[in-house]
Amino acid sequence: DFARIKIGIGHPRDSQETGHIPVERYVLGRFTPDEYTFITALFPSVIDGIRTFTFNGSGPAMNVLNSSTSS
User: Fold this and answer.
1) Residue 69 and residue 46: Cα distance in Å, rounded?
2) What is the C-alpha end-to-end distance of the chain, expressed in Å?
3) CA nearest 8: which of 60, 56, 59, 65?
4) Cα–Cα distance, 42 to 7 (Å, whole number)
5) Nearest residue to 3 (alpha-carbon basis) of 45, 35, 50
6) CB-CB neighbours of 49 under 10 Å
7) Tell me, what's the pLDDT at 55?
8) What distance in Å separates the CA atoms of residue 51 and residue 11, rounded to the nearest whole number?
9) Could you report the per-residue pLDDT of 11-30, keeping only the tens digit for each?
10) Residue 10: which region, alpha, beta or left (left: phi > 0; alpha: psi -120 to 50)?
11) How high is the pLDDT of residue 71?
């Protein structure tokens, strides 16, 4: 067993703009400018989560990461 930190990107069927794109192309494709802005804004929270995971374990890290993405 191992722990991991991941960021979900959704599914192409979730949007009319991307519903026609095959899943593998959607997952492996480049971010749009708006997606890039959104994802880079998450980096400070992800870094805090990694620090928390390293020093306090996965439970506290999940609390840090999940609470920051829902606000």
Assistant:
1) 10
2) 30
3) 65
4) 9
5) 50
6) 23
7) 95
8) 29
9) 888 887 788 888 888 888 88
10) left
11) 46
Rounded Cα–Cα distance for residues 65 and 21 (Å): 29
The better pLDDT of the pair 62, 68 is held by: 62
pLDDT at 69: 52
Give the tens place of pLDDT for each residue, 41-64: 988 988 998 999 999 998 898 888
Can you tell me the distance from the alpha carbon of 11 to that of 23, in angstroms, rounded to the nearest whole number?
Answer: 7
Q: How far are the Cα atoms of 24, 35, 37 from residue 21, in angstroms, in the given order?
A: 8, 16, 22
Q: Give the max Cα distance, the chain.
A: 43
Q: Is 61 exposed, middle or buried, given 0-12, 13-18 or 19+ CB atoms closer than 10 A?
A: buried
